Amino acid sequence: PPSAAANLRPGAEQKVVFITARVHPGETPSSFVCQGIIDFLVSQHPIAKVLREHLVFKIAPMLNPDGVYLGNYRCSLMGFDLNRHWANPSPWAHPTLHGVKQLIIEMYNNPKINLEFYIDIHAHSTMMNGFMYGNIFEDEERFQRQAVFPKLLCQNAEDFSYSSTSFNRDAVKAGTGRRFLGGLLNDTSYCYTLEVSFYSYLLGGPTSAVPYTEEAYMKLGRNVARTFLDYYRLNSLVERPLGPTPKTR
Asked: Name one GO molecular function term (predicted).
């Protein structure tokens, strides 16, 4: 239908979800989660069609390609932990960050664009499950609003843990994408780090750890994407019949 791309017409107001991954090259699960998001969004799934009609997704699937190519665990070609340089990235030393940050600031300054979500995908070497880090705000109402998306994701994804999700302003994390952009963007934008375990997630009791597979990481990505349907209350627009919905906890 002609209305399908209404949000992409020149001058149309756009709600943008910005997703980045693999700023730390050793965190390979983040690429599989990101792949799951991308594959779902470009699919013919009825939910994906509704999301494409209402939202604009900008995705940078690999922020540290030189580090990945070299097999580094955390740093770029020149030995920088890129996720500590968001505040003042150099076009020479941190080119991917510089480019992404310029794009985000351009969108932020465009009155026709509402940058509503920034999600940076990582993998965690000690915790289990998927979980999120968010920011701490003085404004209690804004703080509560920020908790909505991870709570909805917890209902959609059996491997996502809201109880492991935390909100902090640790000085060590000040140069991360989530912290820097959380301070830059206005109070209708939400900035998160999405973490997923390198090895397993818990189902049921504390002894029932299930090893992650590439497919399970991609499934988490699909569930992240479909959570936007719940967040924006677009469920009534999805054509029936739907596939089986994931079990809620």
From this structure: metallocarboxypeptidase activity
